Amino acid sequence: MDSDSGSDYGGEAPHFPRDLPNILITGTPGTGKTTTSEMAAEATGLTHLNVGDLVKAKSLHEGLDTEYDSYILDEDKLIDEMEDMMRPGGKIVDFHTCDIFPERWFDLVIVLRTDNNVLYPRLESRGYNPKKVNENMECEIMQVVLEDARESYAEEIVIELQSNSIEQMEENVSRIKAWRDQWVINNKKD
Predict the structure, then answer these.
(1) Second label for 139, Cα 20 to 30 Å away, from 29, 95, 172, 189?
(2) Helix (H, G, I), strand (E, B), or coil: what is residue 138?
(3) What is the pTM of this model?
């Protein structure tokens, strides 16, 4: 990746001052990213940005992968589209992949994890084909998204949270709100 578009930025990442933090909520499909992101946006006043919806709405893809019934992401187009959105802060970004985004964009990266006995029925209920269900289950078992987050972002901003039930999602949202409130206090301009 080039230094302007990837989280493996080779030099000192530019920091753009902002009044509100940017948060990435990521995880294997079915872990509750969108539900948690929507709830967190409501609780914090931050803006929820569903990357999957953005990719579809702005045609930031190279077509449809019929085997997995999903779009083939054009990472460069996506990053170019999101750059100005991210600069002022105040976003909760919801996407199943995390290592494509510039590290400078995020102040907190949350990786949602779900137990296999909960995740499998969630994926089946979405109508995913068996190959897609099995691949996503394998990704969760192997902690692929968690490892990608740990390799792509500073250790101190990556947090793993369980997301098996509505109660856990509500607890996670409370933690996100408390973190956001503390971030605002810590980054208050004099």
Answers:
(1) 172
(2) helix
(3) 0.88
